Amino acid sequence: AQLRQDHGWIEENWIELAPQLRAMADGHGWTDPAEFQHYAEVFLSLCEGHIALEESLIYPESKARWAAVVARRLTELPALVRA
Q1: pLDDT per residue over 17-52, tens digit each?
Q2: pTM value surpassing 0.70
Q3: What whole-number distance in Å separates Cα of residue 20 and Cα of residue 14?
C-alpha cells in the first residue's frame, strides 16, 4: 500500500516539475528557480524513499521467487535431458 501511495505522490510531484524542466530545457526563462528547486528536492526525496522501500521489500521477495523457479527448473533438467 505504501509503494502504491508513493507512486501517486511521485506522479503528482512530476506533474508540477515536468513543465518547468521542459521549459528550462527549451531555453524559456519563465520558471521560478526557487519553485523549481523545491519541486526537484521533493521529487528526489520521494524517489529515494521509494527506492529504499522497494529494495527492502520487493527485491528480496523477487529474488526469493526467482531462486525458487531456477531451483525447480534445475531439478527438472535431468528429466528433460533423458527424454
Answers
A1: 999 999 989 998 888 889 999 999 999 999 999 999
A2: no
A3: 10
Which residues make Cβ contacts (< 8 Å) with residue 46, sequence separation at least 6?
Answer: 6, 9, 10, 13
Which candidate, 48, 58, 46, places its Cα nearest to that of 10? Answer: 46
Please list the helix, strand and coil fractions of the chain in percent, rounded to the nearest 5, in that order.
Answer: 90, 0, 10
Question: Residue 15 — φ and ψ, nearest 5°?
Answer: -60, -35
As given in the structure block, the three cell numbers for residue 61 are 521477495
Q: Is 65 exposed, middle or buried (0-12, 13-18, 19+ CB in 10 A)?
A: exposed
